[in-house]
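User: Structure please.
Assistant: Input sequence and predicted structure:
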Amino acid sequence: MAGMSKLPAVYRHGLVLASSMAMSYWITMKWLRERSKKLAEKNVNSSMKSHLAKRDQNVAVDKKFFRNLIRLLKILVPNPFSSESLFLVLVAMSLIARTYADVWMINNSTSIESAIIGRSATLFKENVARFAYAMPLIAFVNNGLKYTLEELKLRFRKRLSLYLYDQYLKGFTYYQVNTLDSRIANIDQLLAQDVEKFCTSVADLYSNVSKPILDIIIYARKLTGSIGASGPSLLVFYLICSGLVLTRLRRPIGRMTVTEQQYEGEFRYVNSRLITNCEEIAFYNGNRKEKLIIRDAFERLVKHLRSLIIFRLVMGCIDSVVAKYVSTCVGYYVVSRPFLDPKNSRHANSSYNEILQDYYSSGRMLMKLAEAVGRLVLAGREMTKLAGFTTRVTDLIGVLSDVNRGHCVRSGINHTTVAQRLDHGHIRTQDGIIKFDNVKLMTPNGDVLIENLNFTVRSGQNVIVVGPNGCGKSSLFRTIGELWPVASGTLTKPGSGHLFYIPQKPYMTIGTLRDQIIYPDSHDEMRRKGIKDEQLRDLLDKVQLTYLIQREGGFDGVQDWIDVLSGGEKQRIAMSRLFYHKPQFAILDECTSAVSVDVEGFMYEYCRTVGITLFTVSHRKSLWKYHEYCLSMDGRGKYTFQPIDEHSTEFGS
């Protein structure tokens, strides 16, 4: 204490200020670590744990961050002649114009004030008139900068979103990411929200870094001629030192940003579950249980956001002191040196008005330079936040790339790669036949359902598939549809365009009544095939749904078809969809359970007439007569495949 009392007052105050900020930061970090640990250890709902579990990630502004950012920037700006490159140049030009407008405003304002102090009405009128003439141009520069920046954000988002959707909707990637790979939960939030936040953060960072750098260059050049190079150099040195310190202190923000997005995804997930399963929950009167689940997810999000707010409060105080107030003090010190130094001969013969005008001009430029230094230091805060979004988007691209190459990772098998464990079989493409040759039927988790599956089905040989729940019926169809890999052996099948699957609950797309029948074709594709609405009417007549044309406003009528159509109507729409596409083989998975027996019989006869070979899963005995073979699974790894004759035992009711 005695030693501190001997220090000059300014150093004592600075030391006390630095010590208090360091102590506040240490206390905050200790509290945040304890709070995060308790939040992670909290016993959340077990049904969410497996879906929402995430591995810890170290997020920081480091070499890995810059490598990932450069990788993403190559997607956002694919070449120097792209539209994004043009808008980057336009933003840079707007920033330069904005800085020169600020310099002109400083000089003009100083001239106006000098005219007022010098009581010169002529100079006052001239400078005010000059300012009035410049108003439209300055307004255009300011708003032009806003426009180019917003357009740049939009183009970045479009470019990245289209790239991600191309990867996500390539083949069966969208299915495999959501069912066979457990590394990403809530991919809808990543594609919709995180991409938008990443692109906004990149564009803002470009502006928030470019503008201060331009200001520093231009103002330093202007000031070097008036107060010397030592003043701007001192500010730049302060920028480097304070930037390194603040960047190190802000490192937790990147990790907290990633955690925030994960908790936001959890909250969206539990709400979407309630919407998707609202009818089943209502039958169970499960509103109280769902309320507990939603509140639990929301409480986790709120507690984390509160921790983030407190950390930002402490860092905001440190940022304000270091990047704004201390830099301003440094600026005052630098600008005062030529005026307070009695040995400086620059103003030895200057009048009071000349000294005042020089101080106003140099001082304001130096304050602008100090503000630019402060903004550049604070840009590190945005960069730390960007590191979190960069990690999220980069992880998504990595998972999509892996899945497109056939590599899936599931936590259920100790994070091993599914493709390396299962994808040892072969698929051959051949029309008119489905053949299993020593195929091991296995789930993605590695559970073997049938060790060696051997049977052949040729066109015209309808097969009915029977067996208890969990015996492998759906697994068989997923393997045929190439949704699951072939573990071993050889599967011979027609191409994907010659195989059609109809589940018990058919999918109804967004669009018109016509779109429901021709899905996944578009209207243009239908016309290119030479099919007209009259033929679609005939298909609806075959499934006894022609009344929908009038009831729903024709083929161009748009409805929420999931709610408008009954269960039986949806199943018959799906059968008309099958008749429209006329594949070689069709898989019917309890797809006529809500259809009357007579209509069902007519549809099966029509399939035979047009040459569609059927794989049918059904518990109705009435359907056996439309099939030639029976594939029976016992659920214990055994199966039989034999023709149906008068001695065959029919299963079902």
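Residues 423-643 form a domain with the Rossmann fold fold (CATH 3.40.50.300).
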